[in-house]
Amino acid sequence: MLNDSPGRGKIRLTRRGRGALLVTGALVAGAAVAVPLLLLNDSSERPEAVVIPEGWRTSQVYKAVDKALGVPDGSSKKAAAKAKLKLPHEANGNPEGYLFPATYPIAEKSTPESVLSYMVATAGKKFGTAPISAGAENNAVSVYQTVTIASIAQAEAESKQDMGKVARVVLNRLAQGMPLQMDSTVNYALNRSTLHTKTADTKVESPYNTYARMGLPPTPIANPGDEAMRAATSPPAGDWLYFVTVKKGDTRFTADFEEHQRNVDEFNRLQKQQGKSASS
What we know:
The strands form two sheets. The protein has a four-stranded antiparallel beta sheet, with helices on one face. A two-stranded antiparallel ribbon has the order 5-6. By secondary structure, it is an alpha+beta fold. The protein is globular. It starts with 20 loop residues before the first strand and ends with a helix. Helix 5 crosses helix 8 and helix 6 packs parallel to helix 8. Strand 5 and strand 6 form a beta hairpin. The chain has two domains: 107 residues, no CATH class; 99 residues, no CATH class.
């Protein structure tokens, strides 16, 4: 999403978008000169824009907007509850998934409500296109459900190339009446991000626990970007039902449970080895 540009600083985002960003330089074709928020703590300079990375949760977006506008923590969350955001009916007023990742300008008169409204309007334009509608219809889901699938693909896939396969796994499991069993939805329920999900975690009482509940979670679990939406609307053909990232750059998809279990065992073995190396 971010291109390298000359300026006061740069940061490379992970796919889960760690750390909020602010823009203090000129905007160039949607790109921005981005610096970590902490670098601005001792400066009175107000940023010209706020950058929202793909895959951020709404809670992260709220914090970034609060920081960009210099308003008290929690202001954007309160504004979202009061604002008449143009969200789909299925959202029930929850903007998760519809605060579209992009670079948004900050003006002197900008407020949390105006910035959030801009984000939702951008999502409306992005998600209201014919390809999105056609893809959703072809997959036998609604556009809102497509955004939810895209948010899961964004959170689960190690690379952009794997997003489509993850989306296909979700659709295959829905078609076969299988629980999704996605760690990313459990992480959302527990308000955390981790690769290690324990058995106790999969029993948490939450509508986002896709181990215990059938179907998609009630809302998206993050705000997906263009790549994830393309993956969710046009996933590759495949019979995959399982996947696991055994190690960086090695995500294995399969339709065979026994093969998947062998892959999981290898993942656990490698994790154990890394743990021993770190403690030695």
